[in-house]
Write a structure and sequence with these properties.
10 helices; 77% helix
């Protein structure tokens, strides 16, 4: 694809702008900002990745992964401001998920230790982990606020913080993982996943594209469950003081 064809594809940005203006939806500003940011950010990343791929230097690869984790943490922590130490909890969670998944992939020889594989897969893993963290934190903080009386009642009857928060924690973990699990049930029937579609468009064998896509799906399933569980069990103790009282 050339820059000329890319500029023509801006028609897909103009259409929602025109509709928003015509129907007074008020989406013009956000749509324009989103389009501009996506162009600038993706082009910048493209040139950076070209440099990293050409150099094949492990230091640059690690720096890219660290940048992904830092950006994901910055974005996700906004939903968990009520939880003490949420930033380091997110960093620990994202780092653990990344190290575990890449450790399995590289350690068992599933993928080669090159930037071409490590960086894109890390981006999918960390990105999915970030989305799951946001979903979990949003639901967890809501559950805590909604069931505050129930939590305090269990504590007053001698229950531990873990017992008092257990139902809210489990409900939040389940709710945050549902989109990932449900989407995988209909994969290939309702939609062709992005990685698979990209490989097919690039001319890859469809069967090989399917195999790589299945690898990604299995990765994202582990990422979803691990992220929610780790973040949940790292977060709930900080909701209580040393006297086992729920912090307001």
């Amino acid at each position: 694809m050339s820059y000329l064809t890319l500029s023509i594809s801006l028609l897909f940005v103009i259409i929602p702008l025109v509709l928003s203006k015509t129907l007074n939806l008020g989406l013009e500003k956000d749509t324009t900002i989103a389009a501009i940011r996506s162009i600038v950010q993706l082009l910048a990343v493209g040139y950076v990745l070209q440099f990293v791929f050409d150099s094949e230097n492990m230091v640059y690869i690690l720096l890219m992964v660290v940048l992904m984790i830092a950006a994901a943490t910055h974005n996700a922590q906004k939903k968990g401001v009520a939880i003490k130490g949420i930033i380091w909890k997110l960093i620990v969670t994202f780092t653990f998920v990344e190290v575990l998944t890449q450790g399995i992939l590289l350690g068992l020889g599933i993928t080669p230790p090159t930037a071409q594989y490590i960086i894109p897969i890390s981006g999918m893993v960390v990105g999915n982990s970030m989305v799951l963290a946001i979903l979990f934190l949003n639901r967890f903080t809501s559950e805590i606020e909604t069931h505050q009386d129930k939590t305090e009642l269990i504590l007053s009857l001698g229950g531990t913080p873990k017992q008092a928060i257990h139902s809210q924690l489990i409900a939040s973990i389940q709710a945050s993982t549902i989109p990932t699990i449900e989407s995988q049930k209909t994969i290939g029937l309702v939609q062709l996943p992005g990685m698979m579609s990209g490989q097919i468009i690039a001319g890859a064998d469809p069967v090989q594209a399917v195999l790589f896509q299945l690898l990604v799906l299995f990765l994202l399933l582990t990422t979803a469950v691990l992220t929610s569980i780790m973040l949940g069990y790292l977060s709930y103790p900080t909701l209580f003081n040393q006297r086992m009282q729920l912090l307001k």
